[in-house]
């Protein structure tokens, strides 16, 4: 297989543009298109779905996944066979849910990343969707609630993250004067990460029997913003208890349904053939999470 063709596919998808890929590869745009066409002829299947945004076909995902794994092996091997060459930063692409990123993930990797020639690429997705980043070849490792390994990858249990439903005393008094019940939830604004994040919706349906769109719910793609929205009395939110220990202790935030909690078990997915820096990163992530999470 001609890896020049796979490289073209990787750059096109990374920049979401044939034109920008041409500039990165220092070739013409038509040459980029030709490389993609040659790749498709070689494998006998389309590899790109030409829409907005560009997306990979099933075959395209397999090819990118393979290409990324070869890149990892090359990054580990090259310094050993050509130590005189200036070493380019090793690229770590990791898929992580926003809550883990805000609470513990950087602390786990800090000793490895600090003062090292490592370039992080953090891909933020909901904890149920991070594994898709592995399947697409975008990431070599992922934090997920899915315990089942993807072919070519392994899973290790990290620990549990307990979510509690919180608000300010002011918000609680205004929207929940008689407690959190079906009627009050219909009128009180909540918050979810994005339209793919089902945690809030599933929690409300499980405990109050209300379907989606029968109550107000903000959408904000930031774990830290969840805390700020709650602290400013803009919403009641499901937040990891470990993230707001200080606010709960001071009374700035209060649990509004202390008997109704959400507990997620997290797993680390990583390549079965990982070596060197990649293996070390996985080891540090697993060990730190097991000390930090429940």
Automatic annotation (TrEMBL):
Gene3D superfamilies: 3.40.190.290, Winged helix-like DNA-binding domain superfamily/Winged helix DNA-binding domain
GO molecular function per UniProt: DNA binding; DNA-binding transcription factor activity
Family to which this protein belongs: Belongs to the LysR transcriptional regulatory family.
Domain of life: Bacteria
Record's protein name: LysR family transcriptional regulator ArgP
NCBIfam families assigned: argP, PRK03635.1, PRK13348.1
Keywords: DNA-binding, Transcription, Transcription regulation
Lineage: Bacteria, Pseudomonadati, Pseudomonadota, Gammaproteobacteria, Oceanospirillales
Domain HTH lysR-type intervals: 1-57
A Pfam cross-reference name: LysR_substrate
InterPro entries (UniProt xref): ArgP (IPR017685), LTTR (IPR050176), LysR_HTH_N (IPR000847), LysR_subst-bd (IPR005119), WH-like_DNA-bd_sf (IPR036388), WH_DNA-bd_sf (IPR036390)
Keyword Secreted: no
């Amino acid at each position: 297989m001609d890896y020049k063709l796979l490289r073209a596919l990787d750059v096109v998808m990374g920049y979401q543009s044939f034109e920008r890929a041409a500039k990165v590869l220092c070739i013409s745009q038509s040459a980029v298109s030709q490389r993609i066409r040659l790749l498709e002829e070689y494998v006998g299947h389309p590899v790109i779905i030409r829409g907005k945004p560009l997306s990979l076909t099933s075959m395209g995902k397999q090819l990118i996944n393979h290409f990324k794994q070869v890149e990892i092996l090359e990054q580990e091997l090259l310094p050993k066979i050509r130590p005189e060459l200036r070493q380019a930063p090793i690229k770590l692409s990791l898929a992580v849910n926003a809550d883990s990123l805000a609470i513990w993930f950087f602390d786990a990797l800090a000793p490895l990343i600090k003062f090292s020639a490592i370039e992080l690429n953090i891909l933020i997705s909901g904890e149920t969707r991070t594994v898709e980043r592995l399947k697409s070849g975008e990431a070599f490792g992922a934090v997920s609630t899915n315990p089942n390994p993807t072919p070519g990858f392994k899973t290790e249990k990290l620990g549990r993250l307990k979510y509690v439903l919180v608000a300010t005393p002011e918000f609680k008094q205004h929207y929940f004067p008689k407690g959190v019940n079906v009627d009050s939830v219909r009128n009180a604004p909540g918050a979810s990460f994005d339209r793919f994040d089902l945690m809030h919706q599933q929690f409300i349906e499980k405990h109050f029997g209300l379907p989606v769109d029968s109550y107000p719910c903000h959408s904000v793609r930031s774990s830290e913003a969840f805390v700020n929205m709650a602290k400013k009395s803009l919403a009641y939110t499901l937040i990891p208890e470990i993230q707001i220990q200080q606010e709960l202790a001071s009374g700035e935030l209060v649990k509004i349904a202390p008997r109704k909690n959400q507990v997620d078990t997290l797993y680390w997915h990583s390549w079965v053939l990982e070596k060197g820096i990649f293996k070390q990163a996985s080891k540090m992530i697993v060990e730190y999470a097991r000390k930090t999470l429940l």
